Amino acid sequence: MELAYIPSPSRGVIHLGPIPLRGYAFCIIIGVFVAVWLGNKRWIARGGKRETVADIAVWAVPFGLVGGRLYHVITDYELYFTNGNDWVNAFKVWDGGLGIWGAVALGALGAWIGCRRRGIALPAYADAIAPGIAFAQALGRWGNWFNQELYGNHTSLPWGLKITSTAGDRVPGIYQPTFLYECLWCIGVGFLVIWADRRFKLGHGRAFALYVASYCVGRGWIEHMRSDYAHHILGLRLNDWTAIVCFVGAVVYMVVSSRLRPGREAVVEPAAVAADGAEGAEPGEAGDAADSSASEPSDAGDAVDMTKASAESDVADVDAGADAGVAPAGAKSEQPSQSS
Questions:
Q1: Mean pLDDT over all residues of the chain?
Q2: pTM for the full model?
Q3: Dihedral, CA of residue 120, residue 123, residue 126 and residue 128, to nearest 10
């Protein structure tokens, strides 16, 4: 008899009249809000505008959801297109099945479109949003708990996950809670990126690359514990190979980027700098400059008049001196000098 375990919810959906409220969807939505909120704080701290992260997320999130679903359907096509399965189920995202690899890849494409529209470099935006993505993944994994999916092998550990559903190929029992392991790992990844970014001033996409590399390390051993069906290549699950490729790519990017573009971007959003400069100008400065400019012609005329009057005065002095037989001041004497 098991004395301790993590219970599974009796159901993953609550109906509010005709409207279904699904735990899986709530976890994804809350994760998105956390990612945007934290990304916005980090973006503002870097000198960006307040609404930029949310505006770009309008592009990134839908692309990410589509990419995550596509990756799942393509890599697990037999669940929808073979053995008499209904292909319409491929569109039922609320039943679970979002591949993080496809979500990040296609989400990055959406973010790139949003960044291009605002004149922002994608690497700087990715650095700001990276830890938020990790925390969003941690929250999203609780959607798997609501759906009673993505668990490991049988276990007698006191934190084992009790599965009660018999839907699909599930067999009731107590299993390794791989969803919980990945949740905790993603939280650690998020804090690691925040610490490293503050400590080493990561820039040009290196904070995002650190997120990818560190997540892949954890996903590798967690994926190895899972007991759900997956395609295998050379004895490893497909997601293990994906994690290896992404890890190598992220590490290579960090090394090459640090050599080609060391340091961190001084300006992440040029429009924000321009706006701050305009706001910093005093309201009367423009008018004063216009008044000063308008007064220049009269000042120049006054100077000409004064110079002309001075010249006429000098000529009169010379004439008066000549009549009196006195040499004007500054004129040289024509008499030879005498020595004593």
A1: 83
A2: 0.79
A3: -80
